[in-house]
């Protein structure tokens, strides 16, 4: 049995990647750059939905992000630019909001997947050319084209789904 240094899962002898989290178990594999896994094309249950939440985001406001299947929400005070993605030990690019603990690698989240930009009183969401796309309320974003983020919106990074609320 070989224990994963990342999640502690006891793997069968001889496997190169952890059967639980996908982390490399051998030194040469653990230090390799893992590309973002390309997912199958469009899922059939991605219907767009209308939102009616406010777009106004006050100076002292914060964002509450409820990630599907996570117990606790992520609360953050967005900077002028907040990059969301997954960390990779071998990459110099580090996201401001690391989604690795939420299964980002398995769900097709890129290292620098999307960004939330803060203006005077609104937030915008921008796909940063991710491999598996960013969706806002079921509609795929065009890379580098900002879209207004509203209270209660659903965002999807690859297959990672979250709901955004303003506080």
Name the features.
single chain; 167 residues; six-stranded antiparallel β-sheet; 1 helix; elongated
Folded structure, characterized:
- The structure is a single chain.
- With 167 residues, this protein is mostly beta strands.
- The protein has two domains: 1-32, no CATH class; 63-166, Sandwich (Tumour Suppressor Smad4), CATH 2.60.200.
- 2% of the residues lie in helices and 29% in strands.
- It contains one helix and 13 strands; from the N terminus they run ββαβββββββββββ.
- It has one helix at 27-30; strands at residues 2-3, 10-11, 63-67, 74-76, 81-85, 97-98, 114-118, 123-127, 134-136, 139-140, 147-149, 154-157, 160-166.
- The strands form three sheets. It has a six-stranded antiparallel sheet with strand order 4-3-13-12-9-10, with no helix packed on it. A five-stranded mixed sheet has the order 6-5-7-8-11, with no helix packed on it. The protein has a two-stranded antiparallel ribbon with strand order 1-2.
- Strand 1 and strand 2 form a beta hairpin.
- The chain is elongated and about 55 Å long.
- It starts with a strand and ends with a strand.
- The mean pLDDT is 88.
């Amino acid at each position: 049995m070989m224990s994963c240094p990342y999640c502690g899962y006891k793997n069968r002898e001889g496997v190169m990647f952890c059967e639980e989290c996908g982390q490399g178990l051998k030194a040469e594999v653990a230090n390799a750059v893992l590309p973002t896994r390309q997912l199958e094309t469009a899922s059939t249950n991605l219907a767009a939905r209308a939102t009616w939440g406010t777009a106004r985001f006050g100076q002292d406001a914060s964002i509450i992000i409820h990630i599907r299947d996570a117990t606790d929400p992520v609360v953050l005070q967005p900077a002028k630019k907040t990059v969301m993605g997954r960390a990779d030990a071998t990459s110099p690019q580090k996201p401001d909001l690391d989604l690795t603990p939420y299964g980002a690698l398995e769900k097709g989240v890129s290292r620098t997947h999307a960004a939330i930009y803060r203006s005077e009183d609104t937030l915008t969401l921008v796909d940063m050319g991710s491999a598996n796309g960013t969706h806002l309320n079921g509609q795929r974003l065009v890379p580098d084209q900002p879209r207004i983020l509203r209270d209660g919106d659903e965002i999807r990074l690859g297959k990672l789904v979250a709901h955004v609320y303003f506080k």
